[in-house]
Amino acid sequence: MKFKDILGWCKAHIIIVVSVLLIIAILPVAAFFSMQWHKSILDKVQKRADAEMAKTKVSVTYALPQIDIAGQGISKSDAPNAKLTEFFSKTREQMLAEVEQLAKKGDDFNKGVGPQATSVGRGEYKFLVDGLFPKPKLTPEQEKQNAMKEVEGAILRDFEDRLLGKGGQPTPYAGLLAGVRAGQPPNPEMVAEIIRDLNQREREKITAGNRQLTPEETERLNQLLKDRRLGEYRATARQIGVYAAPDAFASGTISSTGAGGAAWPVSYVPTDSIPASLQNRARAFVWQWDIWAMQDIFNAIRLANIDSSGKPTGVDQSVVKRIVRIEMLQPEDMKPIAGESARESSGEDPFATAEAPPAVPSPPIDRSRSLAGWIRSGGNGVYEVRRARVKAIVSSARINQFVDALQRTNFIAVSDLDLASVDVWDHLRQGYFYGDEHVVEATFVIDSAWLNSWLLPKMPDELLVALGRTPPEPAPTDPGSTGEAAPATPGPN
Question: What tens digit of pLDDT does each residue of 27-81 get?
Fold first, then answer.
């Protein structure tokens, strides 16, 4: 077909041709505007969806607890994430398991159980008599007869006999001294007799009893007598580990023990008999607790007084050379024990606490109170505190070895230390030979921490109240049981 034929056809069908051309031109323009419109719609929908999602956004807080007072816990907020959830869950379980394991080790060590306690020569704390704390357990027959008072009285009498060393048995205080190989200087009369005999023999040997000593002979004899006296003192010092006498255990008065009110009253130490006003389970527990605390102090003395091979040293080589005085102090701000004051006769409830215990920080440490910062308060749900004052003659160059031995023995800290000079020649005249090294008189204030987890369940209710704590509610008794209730754990305050 020729071009002019095509042109002729287009002219004849001009409407069709124009329509085709318009369609061809409109399609790309329509496509362009359609795409722009679609993008605008998508943007609006996306913004609206984002706004709605922001209102209902799900966030999860992942956290790990603080397990060290020097560190911090970890907290992270984020969208739910399976891997994060698994990581934090496993890590938390692992951390809590480690904390529980450490707490168990600390609890065992504190009460003298396990290899760590054994490694420093400690064993589990034992009662002087069994069946007294926290209260006697009665047989069904005794329950029917309401025989608690009689049973308790009998066990208290056994406790008194054991505490005072009746029946030929040693007192626990004598046992503490024996454990550190304690002894006293040689008897002055015995030493004087030895010197007199030596003096007489030497004079007869020199003069044959028919003349006086020359000045030179007198000087040599006097030196011989001095050396012999010193030799007696030195021989005794090498046979014992530390000088200490039974009267080193200081005692407070009965009135100060029962009255309360003082910040740290000295515990009363009975000697011949226990006064009737102090014959109760709560007071007996305090004496038992005193002995446990002193066991740790004497164990530290034993650890300090060994040589590099682990053998006990004589006084002349010991760090702690003489125990002059040891005082166990009652717990700080301890209230009167029920039955030891006039509260009951006045009609006042002996189990009522006068005021709420002071607030205790967490963790319960306040270094403004003492060097260690341990707080003895009814509001402390973690531990109790006992304090002792020990006056001793120690090596000035090696005093830190005793402090280290205290810290190794248990949860013990020295919260105060005073030093004074020693007139060694005056002490030597009394028979105390300390060796060749320089010594000082040191007065230690020693704090020990006792974990509530194992200690409080052993305490009588009357003592818990005196310490500002709430006795546990009696557990329900199974009608089919022997009458014993399951033990309950005391509250922290």
Answer: 565 555 566 666 677 677 677 766 665 665 667 787 877 766 666 778 777 777 7
Q: Where are the domains of the chain?
A: 62-109, 132-181+240-343+350-466
Peptide bond into 487 cis (omega under 30): no
Degrees, nearest 5: CA angle 316-319-325 = 100
CA distance 8 to 25: 23
What is the rounded CA–CA span in Å between residue 152 and residue 133? 10
Judge contact between 484 and 143, C-beta under 8 A.
Answer: no
Q: Which of 109-118, 269-278, 327-336 has maximum average pLDDT?
A: 109-118
Q: What angle do CA 428, 433, 437 make, to 5 degrees?
A: 110
Element (H, E) at 386: strand 383-395
Kindly give the pairing relationship between strand 412-420 and strand 439-451: antiparallel
Distance CA 9, CA 126 (A): 126
Global pTM reads: 0.78
Question: Which pair of tokens denotes residue 368?
Answer: 């403004």
What are the tokens at 461? Answer: 């209710």
- What are the strands of the beta sheet with 412-420, ordered from one edge? 182-183, 242-243, 320-329, 383-395, 439-451, 412-420
Residue 216 CA: distances (Å) to CA of 199, 212, 222: 15, 11, 10
Residues 6 or more apart whose Cβ sits within 8 Å of residue 430: 185
Q: Is the pLDDT of residue 178 over 70?
A: yes
User: Cα–Cα distance between 60 and 359 in angstroms, integer?
Assistant: 34
Which residues, in sequence order, are CB contacts of 133 under 8 Å at separation 6+? Answer: 127, 281, 284, 285, 288, 458, 459, 460
Residue 162 parent element (H or E): helix 148-164
Give first-to-last CA distance, the chain, whole Å: 115
Task: Reply yes or no on whether the pLDDT at 429 is more than 50.
Answer: yes
